[in-house]
Amino acid sequence: MATHGNGKSAGVWLERARAWAREHGIAAIVLGVAAIALTMPLATVRWLPFVDYPQHLGTIAAIHGQGDAIFDRFFVVEYARSQYLLLYVLGDWLASIFGVDGAGRATAILSIATLPLAVGWYLRVHGRPAMLGALAAPIAMHAYVFWGFLNYAAGMVLAIVALGTHARLVQRPDARRAMWLALAALATFYAHAQLYAWMGLACIVQLVAMAPAVGRARAVRALVGSIVAALPSVIAMAWWLRQSGVIERGEAGSRSGHAAEVAAQGAAPIFTPVADTVRAWLGHSFDVYRDGSGVTLAVAFFAGVLVVIALRGGRDAVVVPASVEGTTTSGPWWRRIIASSPEWPMPRTVAPELVLLLTFALYLFAPFSYRLIEPINHRFLPLALALLPVLGPRGALPMRASLVVAPALMALAIATGQVHAKRFGETDREMGELSAALEHTEPGGRLLGLIFDPQSEVVPLPIYLHAHQYFQARVGGLACFSFVEFPKSPVQYAEGAAPPPFPPRFEWTPQRYDHAVWGESFDYWLVRHESGRDAPRSIFRGAASPPEAVFESDRWTLFARPR
């Protein structure tokens, strides 16, 4: 009898596994292809064309290098000053395995390529077709990714995951789901505070929208669970606000003239006209290449959105998959996965649509700037666009439709990856001989970047503005200008290591360099200049012993202190 019972049980679980594969297998393949397509351009180039990316690498290097003399003499780490900790702490850990450069690349991939997976998870929790999350692939590398706001990109992914976790808590309130929500909210906060605030507002909208469907008793339990789950991240936020002074100073550092700018701006946030915001929407999202290929991705993306909207309707009834009826969550881990993966009975609500509406409203009406923290509202547009698949079917797609939509979504994701891979290859070549220049430096030195030509002919942004930070990340030492100048940085100067303060926006105006002021603070000067032109040696005018050019190429010249 026992053998017969075990055989029958195995047959039941095998059938449930097949049901799971039928329901979610196609979605898993589509989302996996989308993630891989986004990963390939990020993993296969030497230099990522993102403005702030070298700064992130330099920060990871300084954190990971604590205990090493070439970093200890320059930096101390003060985690309480910043909430941009998730990627830096993760990068520090990964650097032990892959090195600093590999850790930075891994954090970029995790921040960007996982967006379709997060959207797919959110759709699935609400009973929508998870494969439609792949439609987010074209917007995953939006304009603010190219600005290098990887913390924001990671925050988008985590905030969407946290929102899906909250929806599961509303559907079935219990302590385990509240715990997962607490962890997701805490991770979102330590990725980006703006996305954490959005997540909080979205959870409120979602709970209100779902309350009539789940019933009063369950909604009350979900509210209590949400409040308890919010406590760790709220406490972390309060601690950060107290330690960082961000409310009083915003982005202003105490070493520069930014404090005067904040005082002149006043305490009130700055808003931009809605019409101006709308007119510039492409610049806030898809318009990331000078040849217009980003706009082409936008056309393909919105064509996909229209197809998804045309499929809306689906099965709005409450559905209980046969494979779930009578299933418990006890037993081996693989049984729990199979048992819990098909969704429990759930009513269809308009919660995802209302969250989307909230996000677009924040894009249009939230402030543009507060105490030099900007742009605020413009960054909500990529998030809103990523959530557009919620306008699609409110229930599972029929198999025939899935077999048509799935190849189209995969083709769109693959085309997106190819567009980025081709342009990344062009910016790789455009970077020039930076590696060769850095080979003429020694670890533990002090380098000042003077980027006279930060612009790119491929990307309409100053993607080489912080390229000098590759010295700090790949060679080791102190590279300026750096984010250490700002209070948001978890890395600060060690006592006696700071160069004289730089004026506001010094990195944008290297012609203001005065060798009499900063000359004694550096051993190397890395100059990027226009192709075909020599480095401007006038920057060292008046120096008794001007630095010597130890490396010269088409775009880079490295000067060193005379021996």
UniProtKB/TrEMBL annotation:
The keyword DNA damage does not apply. The chain crosses the membrane at residues 26-48, 107-124, 144-166, 178-199, 219-241, 294-311, 354-373. Keywords: Membrane, Transmembrane, Transmembrane helix. The keyword Transmembrane helix applies. This is Glycosyltransferase RgtA/B/C/D-like domain-containing protein.
